[in-house]
Write a structure and sequence with these properties.
64% helix; alpha+beta; Alpha-Beta Plaits; Ferritin
Length: 346
């Protein structure tokens, strides 16, 4: 039932983008101004790219490759239905021929409604799945193109220029709020919940493509002693430095989150045993560099590499448990090392 509701959410998001594209097509047909036509055509091409994103994302939902994003999807569906009703209202207001200001106001309303936090939350969630495409960046570029169009024509109406500023302010506020909710404030890495929710769809993709995924559990050695001897403020500085070191140690397609306390978790959607020594070396070098000016620390790590089997979520949790066991083996053997099922790296 929950997966069906998620499908309905994505379907409505797709429908909203299709309505926006349809409106751009209408205004292109209606306008006789070559410059306006050129600007609208660019925005329409971008909307078609957005439609492709939603179509492909909807396909992933249909294949059960996207776990539940929203705690209450029924309320999200109702909110999107209300949004679609607003789109109906905009379209019903079209009375050709439409003046330039009327066209700008109508398109502004579409772009304004598409800045709903529902869309931006999904962009943030789906970003790691689209390794060659960043939906948030693409939407920001599209928004700036639209705002530049408003500013180009604002000489005749300063209120139009203000509309562009409003859109940009709203985008920055919602994007900042979304990032804040998904990021651990102290360390700058993903929260545990967001990490797990993001890793699962990547695991589904890896299972479909029969790729090895990797999970690393990493723990700061002797962290309790740091808190006891140097205080919690210094301990927080160490956590912040380690978080930055780990962020600098991964590719754009990889994930890092704070699992709890001084323990971190990393997810690699494609990993080979041959690449493990280099990954461990990079992590250790970055941790040494980032913590040198605070309190130098080391990490103990447990690393698991495996092909994902069905059921995917259970297999991911089994890998996390196995990585956790290898982490404690590294602690038991003397710390400052990485234990895997095929050897130990110091």
């Amino acid at each position: 039932m929950a997966q069906r509701e998620l499908y309905e959410v994505f379907k409505r998001c797709l429908h909203c983008e299709q309505r926006a594209a349809k409106s751009y097509e209408f205004f292109i047909t209606d306008t006789k101004d070559n410059k306006v036509n050129e600007q609208l055509s660019k925005l329409l091409d971008e909307e078609k790219g957005h439609i492709y994103f939603w179509e492909q994302s909807l396909s992933l939902v249909e294949q059960d490759m996207v776990p539940e994003i929203f705690a209450n999807p029924s309320s999200i569906i109702r909110e999107l239905d209300a949004l679609i009703s607003k789109f109906d209202s905009i379209e019903q207001s079209y009375r050709p021929p439409i003046s330039l200001n009327e066209m700008l106001l109508c398109t502004f309303r579409f772009e304004y409604y598409l800045l709903n936090p529902i869309f931006i939350q999904i962009f943030s969630f789906m970003k790691p799945v689209w390794t060659s495409y960043n939906p948030s960046t693409d939407y920001y570029d599209h928004l700036m193109h639209f705002i530049n169009m408003l500013r180009f024509h604002s000489q005749s109406d300063q209120a139009i220029d203000l509309l562009g500023d409003t859109l940009l302010t709203l985008w920055r506020y919602i994007s900042s709020l979304t990032k804040e909710l998904s990021t651990d404030r102290l360390t700058g890495v993903m929260t545990r919940r967001i990490f797990l929710e993001t890793a699962i769809p990547l695991a589904f993709l890896a299972q479909r493509n029969r790729m090895n995924i990797g999970i690393i559990m990493a723990d700061i050695d002797n962290f309790k002693k740091i808190n006891d001897s140097s205080g919690h403020v210094k301990g927080d500085e160490v956590l912040k430095a380690v978080g930055e070191a780990l962020r600098n140690s991964i590719r754009r397609s990889d994930l890092v989150g704070r699992y709890g306390g001084e323990e971190f978790i990393l997810f690699y959607p494609e990993l080979t045993t041959e690449s493990v020594p280099g990954i461990v070396r990079k992590i250790r070098e970055n941790v040494d560099k980032q913590t040198a000016s605070v309190i130098p620390v080391t990490l103990s790590m447990g690393i698991v590499i495996d092909k994902i089997d069905l059921p995917v979520e259970k297999h991911v949790w089994d890998m996390i448990d196995k990585a956790d066991s290898l982490l404690y083996k590294a602690k038991h053997e003397g710390k400052d090392r990485a234990c895997t099922e095929f050897g130990t790296f110091q």
